[in-house]
């Protein structure tokens, strides 16, 4: 139901470009949006939301391709090695590009040289949620339980080295307890595991996780980001609780091959005309359209911060 509601809200980031005629001049064959993970996650939902209005703006069909595997490297490398013409786009959570240089001994592409930033799309804070079978009601109860039961809590996440894993590691360390890392193939399976009682805790972007909390399938504990969510006003923020990684969340953005001409990047960037901000807020996300330079700055900042967590906790892909 949530997915249908999202797809019906084509105005979420609705591109239609203010200048469809001018934009279309730079595109002469179909476009592809590469999503480097499985269907059902935030990136996949966004890509399918954007495909139709992007195609209208560019004057070409747009196809969404899921190229999961190797921690997102398969999809990222495909775009890095695509023709530099702006017709092959990479849409993903920026944390993938920020963490992979620390998790893989050798990447087949260089994030700085082989991928050009176009624009952020949205920022969605993380909702930390608990299974209703877990005997905790709020953040204080969760911290007390973690300290009293070291090693008993488990954290469902979207895979080793993903942001949902790294933030969970940082939180558990701050709580003074321990949590078992339980990787799943994406955020959607992790949410289902907590909703069914198979796992204790999870974190996922609000665009994915908020319906589960609102509908009572799991218990909301706290939310990252600068403020509380309008739909869940009783959930405190990480900052209010003094928890680390207070501004963590899913930063979704679009990149193209690194040698794409600036004029073509600018055409794609011009299509990012977010509308219906209230609708975005209802879904727990915020539009982020500051442009290519701001996107690159965010990527570099995340790379430094997340790299530190990986080094400090000796996180490896074989864990």
From TrEMBL:
SUPFAM superfamilies: Periplasmic binding protein-like II. Pfam families: TctC. Keywords: Signal. Residues 1-23 form the signal peptide. The keyword Nucleus does not apply. Transmembrane segments: none annotated. The keyword Coiled coil does not apply. It comes from the Bacteria. InterPro entries: BUG, Bug_dom1. Belongs to the UPF0065 (bug) family. This is Tripartite tricarboxylate transporter substrate binding protein. It comes from Roseicella frigidaeris.
């Amino acid at each position: 139901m949530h997915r249908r509601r999202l797809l019906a809200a084509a105005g979420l980031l609705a591109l239609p470009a203010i200048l469809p005629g001018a934009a279309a001049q730079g595109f002469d064959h179909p476009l592809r949006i590469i999503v480097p993970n499985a269907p059902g996650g935030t990136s996949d939902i966004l890509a399918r939301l954007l495909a139709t209005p992007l195609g209208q703006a560019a004057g070409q069909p747009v196809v969404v391709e899921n190229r999961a595997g190797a921690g997102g490297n398969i999809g990222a490398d495909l775009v890095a090695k695509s023709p530099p013409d702006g017709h092959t786009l990479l849409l993903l959570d920026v944390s993938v590009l920020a963490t992979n240089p620390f998790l893989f001994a050798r990447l087949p592409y260089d994030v700085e040289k082989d991928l050009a930033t176009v624009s952020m799309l949205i920022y969605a804070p993380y909702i930390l949620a608990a299974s209703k079978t877990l005997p905790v009601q709020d953040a204080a109860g969760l911290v007390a339980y973690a300290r009293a039961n070291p090693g008993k809590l488990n954290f469902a996440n979207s895979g080793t080295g993903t942001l949902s894993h790294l933030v969970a590691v940082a939180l558990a360390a701050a709580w003074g307890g321990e949590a078992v890392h339980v990787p799943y193939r994406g955020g959607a399976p992790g949410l289902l595991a907590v909703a069914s009682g198979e796992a204790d805790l999870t974190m996922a972007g609000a665009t994915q996780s908020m319906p589960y909390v609102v509908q009572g399938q799991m218990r909301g504990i706290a939310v990252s980001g600068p403020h509380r969510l309008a739909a869940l006003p009783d959930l405190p923020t990480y900052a209010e609780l003094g928890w680390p990684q207070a501004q963590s969340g899913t930063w979704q953005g679009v990149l193209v091959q690194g040698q794409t001409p600036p004029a073509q990047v600018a055409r794609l960037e011009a299509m990012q005309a977010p509308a219906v901000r209230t609708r975005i807020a209802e879904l727990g996300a915020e539009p982020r359209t500051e442009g290519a330079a701001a996107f690159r700055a965010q990527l570099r900042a995340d790379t430094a911060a997340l790299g530190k967590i990986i080094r400090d906790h000796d996180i490896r892909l074989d864990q």
